[in-house]
């Protein structure tokens, strides 16, 4: 409690591609969708507590 963390943003990236596939049998219902989650890489420079 009361700690201070100092860091800096290294890079903003996207995660690995995840493919979402929905299908209902015998109904010819098919949906294919891709997704990549954005995230930020942070370097922690110091922790003072």
TrEMBL record:
<keyword id="KW-0694">RNA-binding</keyword>
<dbReference type="GO" id="GO:0005840">
    <property type="term" value="C:ribosome"/>
</dbReference>
<dbReference type="GO" id="GO:0019843">
    <property type="term" value="F:rRNA binding"/>
</dbReference>
<dbReference type="InterPro" id="IPR036164">
    <property type="entry name" value="bL21-like_sf"/>
</dbReference>
<comment type="similarity">
    <text>Belongs to the bacterial ribosomal protein bL21 family.</text>
</comment>
<keyword id="KW-0699">rRNA-binding</keyword>
<dbReference type="GO" id="GO:0005737">
    <property type="term" value="C:cytoplasm"/>
</dbReference>
<dbReference type="GO" id="GO:0003735">
    <property type="term" value="F:structural constituent of ribosome"/>
</dbReference>
<dbReference type="InterPro" id="IPR018258">
    <property type="entry name" value="Ribosomal_bL21_CS"/>
</dbReference>
<keyword id="KW-0689">Ribosomal protein</keyword>
<dbReference type="Pfam" id="PF00829">
    <property type="entry name" value="Ribosomal_L21p"/>
</dbReference>
<dbReference type="InterPro" id="IPR028909">
    <property type="entry name" value="bL21-like"/>
</dbReference>
<comment type="function">
    <text>This protein binds to 23S rRNA in the presence of protein L20.</text>
</comment>
<dbReference type="GO" id="GO:0006412">
    <property type="term" value="P:translation"/>
</dbReference>
<dbReference type="GO" id="GO:1990904">
    <property type="term" value="C:ribonucleoprotein complex"/>
</dbReference>
<protein>
    <recommendedName>
        <fullName>50S ribosomal protein L21</fullName>
    </recommendedName>
</protein>
<dbReference type="InterPro" id="IPR001787">
    <property type="entry name" value="Ribosomal_bL21"/>
</dbReference>
<keyword id="KW-0687">Ribonucleoprotein</keyword>
